[in-house]
Amino acid sequence: MSRNAAPPLLEAKGLSFYRQDECIFGPLDFCLRAGDLRLIEGDNGSGKTTLMRILTGLLRHDEGELRWRGELMTGPRRDGELLFLGHQLGLKHELTARENLAVAVGLHGLRPGREIAATLADIGLRGYEDELVRSLSAGQKKRVALARLMVIPGTLWLLDEPYANLDRAGIDMVNQILAQHTGAGGAALVTGHGAVSFLGDSAARIRMHD
Ligand SMILES: Nc1ncnc2c1ncn2[C@@H]1O[C@H](COP(=O)(O)OP(=O)(O)OP(=O)(O)O)[C@@H](O)[C@H]1O
Questions:
Q1: Domain membership flag for residue 13
Q2: 29-71: per-residue pLDDT in tens?
Q3: Residue to mutate, 17, 43, 48, 56, ligand 1, most ligand atoms under 8 Å from C-beta
Q4: How many angstroms separate the alpha carbon of residue 56 from the centre of ligand 1?
Q5: Is residue 104 part of a domain?
């Protein structure tokens, strides 16, 4: 079967969202296949996070259609194919970096070819593996959350502002991680303001407003 014969992983057609009759965004049309990376661009308040929440199924869109592997999406997906990293990182502050990853792996399984200690080292946390997350810096916490994403299986990554709080090396690292993930057949949707220049032209853009 050719690559394009399978339905896309995610497809949005005429997707719109309103709050009290005010259109927050839309209509939006986009489609993601294995290997795709898209950058969601828009000013503060343009609805990027709202769109992410809709894609995870946490919020319901008002108009249009959303499909996952060709099937209409009607609520949160719980099969582990779709992983969301939001502004709130969802880390357990009273556990160490290593323990946070171990909990995630215990719940969701280990991504083939990954290993917790090596992933923490790769992401720049060598020597911090056994520190409590609450004692880590904002950028280090973000790295733990990204490492967690890397060690568990998942097809589509929804990353809301993954570059926030990261230094230049951290930003390059996110781009590397994204390239690895999409190169291995995953897909990613990324929001950001600063990311625009960092991702260059490799990522197609979804604009919240013309
Ligand atoms: N829980 C909420 N209740 C009411 N209005 C909300 C709520 N969350 C967001 N909004 C409004 O919806 C609009 C879109 O917000 P959203 O957080 O999606 O924007 P954003 O593009 O992610 O912004 P930023 O770049 O600042 O993170 C804003 O006008 C915001 O005030």
A1: no
A2: 999 999 999 999 888 899 999 999 999 988 999 999 999 999 9
A3: 48
A4: 16
A5: yes
